[in-house]
Write a structure and sequence with these properties.
Elements: H1 21-24, E1 34-37, E2 46-49, E3 53-59, E4 62-66, E5 78-82, E6 91-95, E7 103-107, E8 113-116, E9 132-135, E10 144-147, E11 161-167, E12 170-173, E13 186-192, E14 201-206, E15 217-219, E16 221-222, E17 231-232
Antiparallel strand pairs: 1-2, 2-3, 3-4, 5-6, 6-7, 7-8, 9-10, 10-11, 11-12, 13-14, 14-15, 16-17
Length: 233
């Protein structure tokens, strides 16, 4: 008989202290994503909750709500973070539908953010979506963006959005790929190199937002070289 080892159960305790603004802030009545991120590079994970706010981690389990961050809090469903301009701090995408759409907020490095309203970001409602995810799909050192579109929900009638990063906050939308030519109830996307071939691949989860169950999608990057437009299958 082989040796058997016991694994201690992991115990969780709910944080209920009213000194914590995460506990006392009003409950959201809509779908809202959340992310743990170190937005100020102090090696403590902060929390951002769509339409609720940005909560700074003060250490020892204590948080302070940042009320002047510049991040939009009136619309949105999902959010994803990455250093889109390679300046050493992470920036924020808030994805959403209806009148809000998807917006890019640039980290100013001083605990404030500024919305980018140029180029593809000039019309947020042209980029309506649910979840979004950053990934450097062409290995050029710049993170690109995929936005999942659940057709028939939150005012979305068009396909997913694929945005290529050209640096300095400049992105170009590409609508000629396999990831943007299908209409479905796409909700949550994620990049990962599942086949360990050196480039990230794309998984897109789907929901029941249009009244029927939908399939999930796994798309693999093929024929990819640095700075080239890669192909997916």
């Amino acid at each position: 008989m082989g040796n058997c080892s016991l694994v201690n159960a992991q115990l969780f305790t709910q944080v209920t202290s009213t000194a914590n603004p995460i506990v006392t802030d009003p409950v959201q009545s809509y779908y809202n994503g959340a992310s743990w991120i170190d937005y100020d590079n102090d090696n403590l994970l902060d929390l951002f909750v769509v339409r609720s706010g940005l909560y700074h981690n003060d250490g020892n389990g204590n948080f302070s709500k940042i009320t002047n961050s510049g991040l939009g809090l009136t619309t949105g469903v999902g959010n994803t973070w990455a250093d889109i301009d390679n300046d050493g701090d992470i920036d924020c995408i808030q994805s959403g539908g209806n009148a809000g759409g998807t917006k890019l907020f640039i980290n100013n490095g001083n605990a404030t953010f500024t919305q980018n309203t140029s180029g593809v970001w000039a019309v947020p409602t042209a980029l309506r979506g649910w979840g979004s995810t950053f990934g450097d799909y062409n290995n050029d050192g710049l993170v690109d963006l995929f936005i999942a579109s659940p057709v028939g929900f939150v005012g979305i009638t068009d396909s997913c959005k694929f945005l290529i990063n050209f640096g300095n906050g400049n992105f170009a939308r590409v609508d000629t790929t396999i990831v943007t030519d299908t209409l479905d109830a796409f909700t949550v996307p994620s990049w990962s190199d599942f086949d360990n071939d050196g480039d990230v691949d794309l998984f897109i989860g789907s929901g029941r937002v249009n009244g029927a169950l939908s399939r999930d999608y796994l798309l693999r990057i093929i024929s990819c070289k640095v700075a080239d437009h890669c192909s997916l299958e």
